[in-house]
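Could you join me in thinking about how sequence relates to backbone shape in a protein? Label the sequence line and the structure token line clearly, so we can match residues to local backbone shapes. Once you have written the record down, we can walk along the chain together.
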Amino acid sequence: MAAGHTCGPARASARARRAAFALLSGVDVHPDEDFDGADVRSLWLLAYARCGFGNPRPGLREAVELTDLEALGARFRALGDRWGEAALLSVRATRAVYQGDLVALRQHAEAAATLFREFGDRWGHLQSCEQLGVLAEIAGDYAAAARLHQDCVRDAEELQLWTSASFGLARLGRIALLTGDLERATEYHEQARRLAVEQSHRPAEQFAVTGLALGARRRGDLETAQTLLRPWLDWNRRFGVDSGTALILAQLGYAAEQRGDTEGAAALHREGLAAARRTGDPRALALALEGLAGAHAAADHPERAACLLGRAAALRDSVGMPLPAAERIDVDRASERARASLGEAEFASAFARGRAGQAVREPHSLTADKAYSNGLGLDCACDDGQTVSRVLPARSSDLRTTGP
């Protein structure tokens, strides 16, 4: 049936569920799907599956309106479906992760957890537990994050939710990486990858393989890291997963920088910046700017590097989450290079100008670097005279008032 033609509610609901499971599995959705008339829980499932997917392909564009969260919430309330309301809060929390809205993440995850506990719904509790574990990891509270993710893995295994177990193991792998246990990180990520492959779940497989690539780069095995990442860059682009695209481009850019290819690194980080802008996540923007700073520092443009680092720090501060010490290896490398060239006083001055969005003018060999003059979140004139508008979010930074 072609898009735009109506079908019965049962068939529309079945199509919505089929599209949701296709997305959750990481396979293409039929381009002519028609979801008009689907029941609210089927549309909720599609909204849940669409988390993290941007720029929907033709077959999902109409689903954007049908799965509007406000409209779904109104339908759940009209039906008196409190489980649906809790499940919708969980979707809001997941979307907040991708948008970098950490205040909303905590708010929705905790509210969903409360309702799911009332219902005795272990699946729902598992979702909230994972979301709060992510928040703890972002805040640098790795002990709390590990505890929450261990609970997730235990519950997932007991419920035989093997895809959820894969994600939980991979998240434990990330914590092991951040705490310096590279061997344990590899074990977790390999277990996660095997489970994902057994379940034919491409998103979970990608998450695990990305963790293996992060570990390879930490060990200095840049070739392995690049080999693991490149296939998933195409996958993320095909599905419009801007958050994944931005992360992978950042990692490929850092690998290029560490191999001495500063021009290639800058090009990759520029692409990553474009993807990060589409997410609306200040932390993704900051990661791209930090990568560009590393490329400029390696290319002996220390003032620009310091300015970019300052802007990235301002973006992270805007959501109340400065970069934790365990995640500063790449930033510290760029900072040390720029500081060694400029001296402490000049580095601090350029960093402060970047934080404040002021201009830095410097001849550069990375002539294709339009990132500095295209949407960095800088309110300043740049080398080519273009003006860039500020994109810092107006969000509360009070994220540590309660523990996860």
Notes: The chain has a mean pLDDT of 84. The CA atoms of residues 132 and 404 lie 6 Å apart. The chain is about 70% helix and 0% strand.
